[in-house]
Design a protein that fits this description.
About 40% of the residues lie in helices and about 10% in strands. It has about 625 residues and is of the alpha+beta class. A hairpin with a 4-residue loop joins β5 and β6. It starts with 9 loop residues before the first helix and ends with a helix. One of its GO terms (molecular function) is calcium ion binding.
């Protein structure tokens, strides 16, 4: 149930402690707000069958060796400190570290490239030209709007009217040394009012990873001493203060019975707006939150806490995360949590685990937050991530019929059964396994990451355009599809016999999705194998020849039609933040965003790892 905290400051809210919070009774349906006609419908999902977990599938391959045993801990629910937030707990120190003597040495992550090798300046410049081509179109036709519409040369406010393209794109411009562009972006950012919007309840997952992550990353980059930073001091400081202003509004989303984050927040009334999940067979509707949504705060918000000195951000995100790494009931395979959690009780509602959309970045952040800062809490995150990686090797890293050397990551359905389906979003996992393997000195994880990255590259390398679809399926070891209708699909059969997979109807589009290219970046930087950079160049050429039009770049509707068939009228902000950044970094000198010093959020925004790097990340102690 939504709780009114209107006219109450965030930190007054954080100080409240009531018996209602300490002992949630939470089964009431969400407060009705349909009478407010400018709000869209809240997110909801309906399942038409009962959900019953399948716990009996045997392993399909070997497992990791020497991983720590994992013990579930009880999620705090009472007897917790009333400040700074009801029902919250944290292992974090009360204040920032005051010197690099307290920080561990940086773990070497990247391949030891010989001096002058590992990059390609000509190709990096080509990617930079693509950025400027798209950016100049945005400035001409849509500056100040959220995104450019590249088919009719107009702008649209589809992310709450704060100029998401500017905020999402600034760190890429900093890295590319586009100083005039950065100056223009900084000038706009300091004028944004993140406390209000006329566009309805704010979807806090994307707002956090795009806006807040972009602001914090730009601040870290400009304060690091590694990039040009001769900009007005007030504008650089505005990056951090704007991130705090936005976080103080997003934080109302954690004002739930459990502390799990809501899907949306009403920025006018400062109330969480809960999504729902319905199981039609039982006619039970739950106040629910998506796993990726509530589990993708820890990294960015830990960093914001350390930069600002305000531990509330860390504690809010840590509290929500505690339910995900202590799931109840247990997932079908250890670590592979489902996509929906009951926001009133903290219980897991579905068993559709894997690395796909809906759970992807929640798993991604576990190992990345451990890399960012090693504490007892982040060590638990790392251990839970290892459980997920081990289950991946055992149960869902599969080979399609007739292709024993091709590896795909299967999604699970809501009951936890293999679906022999993979989406583009899960392709980040190759890079995530590579990062974890390098960080933890586990070569078997690096091998898994290479196999997954190769599997995702298959969908780019075998289509007519050289771009990948949003989803694909395959025939299992018994030569059967998850959907029996596909067993007699002649076209799917022929394509799968040739390439190992087929593309379901409606999933043929490419809309600036970055995840396969993300893993190419990690593979290149961690293994040093030049083939990954060559694959990256092939992707860039495909983007430039297929998605580029006479205005900017646009989404492609069918990767298996000449020139992608028709286009869609959108240029997502993450084209600047992720696609072009990953491609540029593949071809830049490997010292640019060295993975030993930087950890990238799920929107590719780099944050400084808390390790001994001189004093470049100790902003509070150096006087900036």
């Amino acid at each position: 149930m939504a709780r009114s905290v209107a006219a109450t400051s965030l930190f007054s809210m954080l100080a409240m402690a009531t018996s209602e919070w300490d002992h949630p009774t939470g089964t009431a349906s969400p407060q009705s707000w349909s009478s407010v006609n400018w709000w869209p419908n809240p997110p909801f999902v309906t399942e038409s069958w009962a959900i019953s977990p399948h716990y009996t599938t045997p392993p399909v391959t070997s497992s990791l060796s020497s991983i720590p045993s994992y013990t579930y801990t009880s999620t705090p629910s009472s007897g917790l400190p009333s400040f700074p937030y009801p029902n919250s707990t944290s292992s974090a120190p009360a204040t920032m570290p005051t010197g690099n003597a307290t920080l561990p040495a940086c773990k070497k992550i990247q391949y030891n490239f010989p001096t002058g090798q590992g990059g390609n300046a000509e190709r990096a410049d080509a990617v930079k030209e693509a950025y400027l081509y798209a950016w100049n179109a945005y400035v001409k036709y849509a500056f100040g709007k959220d995104e450019l519409q590249p088919l009719n040369a107009s702008g649209v406010d589809n992310w709450f009217g704060w100029g998401v393209t500017i905020v999402d794109a600034i760190d890429t411009a900093i890295i590319m040394n586009l100083t005039d562009v950065v100056a223009q972006q900084l000038g706009f950012i300091q004028t944004i009012d993140f406390t209000t919007t006329t566009y309805g309840p704010v979807e806090i997952f994307d707002v956090s990873i795009r806006y807040l992550g972009g602001l914090v990353a730009a601040y870290d980059l400009l304060r690091s001493g590694q990039f040009y930073n001769n900009y007005p001091e007030v504008q650089i400081e505005a990056l951090l203060s704007q991130a705090q202003s936005l976080a103080d509004k997003i934080a109302y989303g954690f004002n739930s019975p459990t502390g799990l984050a809501s899907s949306n927040v009403n920025f006018t009334s400062n109330e969480p707006v809960f999504g729902t999940y319905t199981i039609e067979a039982t006619n039970v509707t739950y106040n629910a939150t998506n796993t990726a949504s509530t589990g993708t705060f820890i990294l960015d918000w830990f960093r914001l806490s350390d930069l600002s000195g305000n531990q509330s951000y860390r504690q809010l995100s840590e509290r929500a995360e505690s339910y995900l790494v202590n799931p109840s009931p247990a997932p079908v395979y250890p670590g592979l949590i489902g996509t929906e959690f009951d926001i009133d009780t903290g219980k897991m509602l579905t068993f559709d685990g894997g690395w796909e959309a809906g759970v992807d970045s929640a798993l991604e952040y576990l190992i990345k937050t451990y890399q960012y800062q090693q504490t007892p809490t982040t060590t638990q995150y790392k251990d839970f991530w290892l459980q997920a990686a081990d289950s991946t090797i055992k149960y869902i890293a599969l080979h399609p019929y007739g292709f024993p050397d091709l590896t795909f990551l299967s999604e699970l359905d809501v009951n936890g059964s293999l679906a022999w389906t993979q989406d583009d979003f899960s392709c980040f996992a190759g890079g995530n396994f590579l990062l974890g393997g390098a960080l933890l000195d586990m070569p078997e994880l690096i091998d898994l990451g290479i196999a997954v990255t190769d599997g995702c590259h298959q969908e780019y390398n075998t289509t007519l355009t050289g771009l990948g679809p949003i989803e694909w399926q395959w025939y299992n070891a018994s030569n059967l599809a998850y959907d029996p209708l596909r067993d007699n699909d002649a076209a799917a059969r022929k394509w799968a016999a040739k390439y190992g997979y087929f593309i379901p109807d409606g999933d043929e589009g490419w809309s600036s999705r970055p995840e396969p290219t993300e893993s190419l970046f990690y593979a290149h930087r961690i293994t040093g194998d030049a083939r990954w950079a060559e694959y990256g160049w092939q992707v860039f050429q495909a983007v430039n020849s297929t998605a580029r039009n006479d205005i900017a770049f646009a989404a492609v509707n069918n990767v298996n039609m000449p020139f992608g068939g028709s286009m869609s009228n959108n240029l997502d902000s993450f084209f600047f933040a992720e696609v072009l950044k990953y491609l540029f970094l593949i071809f830049s000198d490997p010292s640019v965003i060295d993975l030993s010093q930087w950890v990238l959020n799920t929107e590719a925004h780099p944050l400084l790892v808390q390790c001994g790097m001189g004093r470049i990340d100790d902003h509070g102690n150096t006087g900036k």
